[in-house]
Q: What sequence folds into this?
């Protein structure tokens, strides 16, 4: 059984979709740990509601204890790390510890609209400002740079003339919740 850790920074709707999926389909893996980057992240409450161990490792904590994230993942015997709205760059030592075993989801069709600062509403506003006719999600492996790892999967949606950041975000969330857990499951089935 593959042991998963979810790293998140906010609300945690994708984390919840992943926890739900693996509770209903436990043959491949299970979520063993949720790590939030801030104490106020609602994802911690979602983890508690699912009976999943959770904790906060903030950017400040990682700066003062550079080995903390790696050590926490090693102590929990994590096999695969899943990012679900995690806003911090993964340290090089953690990337090296999990080659092609850290998975991220991005709310646009990479390589467009990726990189530092391109998350959430920033991405959706940029897509609309650029008059794109489609957007979507990209699920990719994580390397040492924001949104530069090998693409695993993409799904598209239409961007209508009357879409704004909120309506586009709703379309993207639908794609994320539908596909992210399934693609994670496919990746871990190949391990």
A:
């Amino acid at each position: 059984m593959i042991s998963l850790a979810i790293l998140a920074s906010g609300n945690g709707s994708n984390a919840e979709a992943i926890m739900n999926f693996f509770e209903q389909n436990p043959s491949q893996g299970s979520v063993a740990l949720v790590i939030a980057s801030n104490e106020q992240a609602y994802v911690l409450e979602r983890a508690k509601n699912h009976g999943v161990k959770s904790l906060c490792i903030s950017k400040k904590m990682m700066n003062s204890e550079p080995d903390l994230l790696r050590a926490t993942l090693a102590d929990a015997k994590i096999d695969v790390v899943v990012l679900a709205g995690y806003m911090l760059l993964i340290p090089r030592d953690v990337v090296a510890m999990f080659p092609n075993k850290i998975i991220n989801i991005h709310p646009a069709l990479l390589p467009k609209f990726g990189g530092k600062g391109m998350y959430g509403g920033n991405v959706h506003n940029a897509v609309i400002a650029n008059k794109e006719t489609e957007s979507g999600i990209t699920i990719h492996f994580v390397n040492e740079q924001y949104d530069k790892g090998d693409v695993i999967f993409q799904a598209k949606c239409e961007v209508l003339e009357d879409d704004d950041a909120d309506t586009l975000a709703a379309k993207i969330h639908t794609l994320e919740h539908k596909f992210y857990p399934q693609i994670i499951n496919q990746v871990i089935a190949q391990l």
The radius of gyration is 16 Å. The domain at 2-106+138-154+179-189 is CATH 3.40.50.170 (Rossmann fold). The longest helix spans residues 165-189.
